[in-house]
Amino acid sequence: MRARLAGILILGSSLATAAALGHAGDQSSRQASGRSGNASLAASTRPTLAAPPTRAELTRATELLIAHPKLGRSVAKAYKEATGEKLDSAADLRPQGSLFHAAQLRKTNEDLAACGSQRCVQLFVRLPDGSWAETDRVVVNLARSKVERLKW
Fold this sequence. Notes:
alpha+beta; Nuclear Transport Factor 2, Chain: A; disordered N terminus; Lipoprotein; signal
């Protein structure tokens, strides 16, 4: 199981709790340990709906967005306005995102209808000057490599 550290919380002076999300089985794990030793005091695993997007998934979603004929031009224009420079790659941007599920929509197209059973990311892109590109309605279906704009 591939896991990533979700957070560490220090409670008092003698207890630490670590949480990890497993992508393979969509499970979360928590482990409490004493700070002075390696012994685990308590551990638990439970299913989660889905792990949040990984850095690699956010990068891939941003690459797909930049390559999109219409939406990519919009992001490149916002980048040029913010920096005065040409957008070269996804590495120039600071993407954030959340998982998107088709159940959040009343109407949807075929590419977004699969969101929930396929990994889809609603993308939020921060520019180097701290402003945000207008991408809050952008959803990327990573399994299909499709970029869609939500219609409200």
